[in-house]
Amino acid sequence: MLRVTLMAMGMVGAMGSGSPTPMPVSILDEEEEGGTPIYDLTHHRWGNPEIFISSAMLIFMLLLFLSFVASYYVSHVLKCTLFPEAAVVLTIGVIAGGLANIGEADEISQDITYFSPTVFFVGLLPPIIFNSGYHLQKRHFFANFGAIGAFAIVGTAFSALIIGTGLWLVSKWQWVSPHGLDFSECLTFGALISATDPVSVLAVFAELQVDPNLFYLVFGESVINDAVGVVLFNTVAKFVGNPGGVDTCLIAVADFFVIFLGSLVIGYVVGILFAFVFKHLHFH
Q1: DSSP for 205-237, written as a single string
Q2: What gap in Å lies between CA 187 and CA 164, rounded to an integer?
Q3: What is the bridge-based pairing of β-strands 45-46 and 39-40?
Q4: What is the DSSP secondary structure assignment for residue 39, as one 8-state letter?
Q5: Binning pLDDT at 50, 70 and 90, where does residue 97 land?
Q6: Residue 265 and residue 284: Cα distance in Å, rounded?
């Protein structure tokens, strides 16, 4: 509306003077985007996207700092074994998420509560898996690699199949709502919740200093089953809404092994390459 008004005023002035005097676009943009860095006159609201993003990042960093302090205080100062560090962080996250969703939603609360799956799979999950693999002790890990692989690969796939089949049968018998769920949807849900991450169990094991073989059985399985769960979920999710027969199942199995083994080969080659490069580079 402001742009139309300015153009009309310019046309009236041009008609009165007898010669057209076009108004620069930059002046129009300046007038339209008027206000202060805090108050936006165009949309009649406080703040701008930069302020919203900065506020969301500030709140996120404060919550992260609060999580570190609270978890350290509970576990090391109070020495509370009934409430592990992971439970403290989860409690702070639940409280912060609940407060962000109370009342009218604004840009800051949306930036805090919105979570992109792409950011998680590409930006957050690889460093988590890399950090776990970097700090493990190779001797205990490879000594139990057969049992770890069986639990992580066969166990996760079997758990997803059992959960998906059970949910499909319950939905078919109309014991839960919605009724008549597709088997691929149930299997996707089974793959989603099968890759457990026993953070609290590992924290208790570390405090009690249990047998290293038991610790690395649980730890190694939790490291590998994340990758298995992600690949299995992405593979099965492709067939949601696309019913098929035996050929579809064979394609799903082949897709799973291609992605899983291909990722292993790529990771192995990249790791060997960078180990060779860092071996012959001297940064000091």
Answers
A1: HHHHT--HHHHHHHHHHHHHHHHHHHHHHHHHH
A2: 4
A3: antiparallel
A4: E
A5: confident
A6: 32
